[in-house]
């Protein structure tokens, strides 16, 4: 029997604006020949092309966690705990035999242990496969199935930012604190609004400094 394998990665963990996305991709024949890479090494047009091919070829599952949900969540738990919860939700959706994940913790082994625990708790009372979790830094470079998840997560993140720009009628850049366009946009918001909108991560140090 063929192993059911998935890859999981996130996009948008660090930005001060917008949602974070966690994507899972079910491995499929022909993935390696697509030329997937870590999404940061690909142009936006190439990512869009690959995302279309991946979504047409296999099962994909994407979770969006909004800026407001991040702020609310961090009142009760750390971002690391939130990452475990989101990655575990992808595991529960797919119920794979093996999962390759890009470690969202400074300790990849601890992340794997926590994910397995989250998966088992989420599946309590239901039938579950015995699961193997390979958690590594740069897994999106080493394993094509994680590269594919990286591409899907990044495409969803980029689309959400472009949609946000269209809705508010302003350019906000990438949403990352290191982006001058993003900081300029935030400076204007701070000047104009007593209460910042929900798409800004109020709990980020960048926002607290600007205020």
Short key terms for the protein model shown above:
single chain, 211 residues, alpha/beta, five-stranded mixed sheet, 8 helices, 5 strands, globular
Question: What is the H/E string?
Answer: EEHEHHEHEHHHH
Strand percentage lies at 5-15%
Secondary-structure class: alpha/beta
Query: How do the strands line up in the largest sheet?
Result: 3-2-1-4-5
Shape call: globular
The CA-CA distance between the termini, in Å, is: 58 Å
Q: What is the alpha-carbon Rg in Å?
A: 18 Å
Helix content, binned percent:
40-55%
Arithmetic mean pLDDT: 94
Q: Would you report the number of β strands?
A: 5
Low-confidence stretches: none
Give the count of helical stretches. 8
Can you lay out the helices and strands and say which pair or pack?
Blueprint: E1 5-11, E2 20-26, H1 44-57, E3 60-65, H2 67-73, H3 79-94, E4 98-102, H4 108-122, E5 132-136, H5 139-142, H6 144-168, H7 180-192, H8 205-210
Parallel strand pairs: 1-4, 4-5
Antiparallel strand pairs: 1-2, 2-3
Helix pairs in contact: 1-6, 3-4
Question: Care to describe what's here?
Answer:
There is one protein chain. The protein is of the alpha/beta class and about 210 residues long. It is about 45% helix and about 15% strand. It is built from eight helices and five strands; from the N terminus they run E-E-H-E-H-H-E-H-E-H-H-H-H. Strands 3-2-1-4-5 form a five-stranded mixed beta sheet. Strand 1 (about 5-10) and strand 2 (about 20-25) form a beta hairpin. The model has no long low-confidence stretch (mean pLDDT about 95).
């Amino acid at each position: 029997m063929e192993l059911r394998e998935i890859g999981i990665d996130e996009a948008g963990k660090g930005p001060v604006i917008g949602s974070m996305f966690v994507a899972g991709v079910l491995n499929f024949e022909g993935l390696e020949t697509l030329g997937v890479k870590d999404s940061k090494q690909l142009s936006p047009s190439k990512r869009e092309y690959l995302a279309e091919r991946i979504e047409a070829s296999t099962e994909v599952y994407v979770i969006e966690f909004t800026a407001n949900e991040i702020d609310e969540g961090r009142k009760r738990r750390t971002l690391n705990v939130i990452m475990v919860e989101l990655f575990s939700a992808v595991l529960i959706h797919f119920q794979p035999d093996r999962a390759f994940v890009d470690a969202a913790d400074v300790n990849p082994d601890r992340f794997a242990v926590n994910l397995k625990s989250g998966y088992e708790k989420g599946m309590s009372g239901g039938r579950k496969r015995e699961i193997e979790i390979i958690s590594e830094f740069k897994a999106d470079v080493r394993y094509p199935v994680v590269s594919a998840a990286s591409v899907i997560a990044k495409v969803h993140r980029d689309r959400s930012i472009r949609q946000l720009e269209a809705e508010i009628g302003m350019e906000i850049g990438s949403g990352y604190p290191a982006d001058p366009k993003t900081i300029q946009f935030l400076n204007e918001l701070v000047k104009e609004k007593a209460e910042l909108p929900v798409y800004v991560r109020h709990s980020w140090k960048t926002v607290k400094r600007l205020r």
